[in-house]
Please model this.
Amino acid sequence: MLKDIFHYIYCMSIPSTMIVLLIVCSLWRYIVSKCDGIAKKKIWKNVNIVLFLIWIFCVVYMTVFSRGDKSEINLIPFRFIFEPFRTGNEEFFRTGWMNILLFVPGGMWLSYGTKKQTKAKCILQVIFLMLASILIETLQWYYKLGTVETDDVICNTLGAIIGVTSIEWAGKIGNIIKPYCFKLLNFIKQIIKNLMS
Model:
């Protein structure tokens, strides 16, 4: 079942996953802004810890345990950008984008779990997640599980940067789209109300 969920996400179009990412980050920012009381903050922090642990499990499952016996090493950086133009195979774009998406949640949960986020803490969080990506690639190489690529580390690090900074940029995007979201919610409520009557 878990493999089917990951396959479904992987098969989504890149624009669809971008829209989902924007919505999730904006919702995340909204929830964080509503956690103003001590009790709410404590509950939300515990939810973040659980989500972070689930994320770690999912990343380890997808990158280590769900791989075949085939082993390959590719140390050419930015292949996910240049190869589609050379070969016409857009799968490299998708793989790169999915590797970026894979580490966005880790960055989000690490940044929220830190008191008073500073630039230095952001950099340390990104370095931590980059080292986690390098560890995963090392495990894949050592146990001969799938393809070991520098692009994976590059894309995972980009995802970490997006995740760590998401609360700040999602807040800016959220302020821009908030009026439209309320209009959409009111429209949906009206449709449901009309369907119920």
